[in-house]
What does this fold into?
Amino acid sequence: MTRDPRIDAYIDGAQPFARPILAHVRALIHAACPAVEETIKWSRPHFLYRGKQLAGLSAFKSHAAFGFWQGSLVAETDAAPTAMGQFGRLETVADLPDDATLTALIHKAMALIDGGVKVARPLKHAKPPLEVPPDLAEAFAATPAAQATYDAFPPSQRREYLDWIAEAKRSETRARRVADAATWLAEGKRRNWKYEQC
It folds into this structure.
């Protein structure tokens, strides 16, 4: 059993109502999964099994939360959660499933890790192709170095310039941004060059 003293401190620093909830879940996880390891991630207690995320705990001002990393596969439910995790807002230990149910869910989460099962992530759809507006194309025609830098940039850096120009509300502002973009690009600068560390 690997216990992390930072989790002891987290539980001790939680609101009084949350301490028994956090301690109870922690004890159940250790009982159900003797090989579990504790750590702090994102400033919250997390439990690892075979180096993979098993579950996490959180304590807030008026409720606590507990959830499995692969929650949609572990706690199959149609109920909409009212807090992070799969069990909604936890205000007392009684808000948790009974110990036998929770232990079975812990075992199910472990089996998913053992089987290499992962939650399917939604596909990311490609953003539409970038189109250079006519006023910027004119500036590029007058400043070939700007066009060369722009062409060498990855799509995300190109989009930063195009979005910045498109966001201008007044024609004067847009014209100034096009001119600035041409100048900065000719100098090889990215859109947010002023904020980059040297």
The chain has a mean pLDDT of 88. Residues 5-114 form a domain with the Aspartate Aminotransferase, domain 1 fold (CATH 3.90.1150.200). The first strand starts at residue 37 and ends at 41.
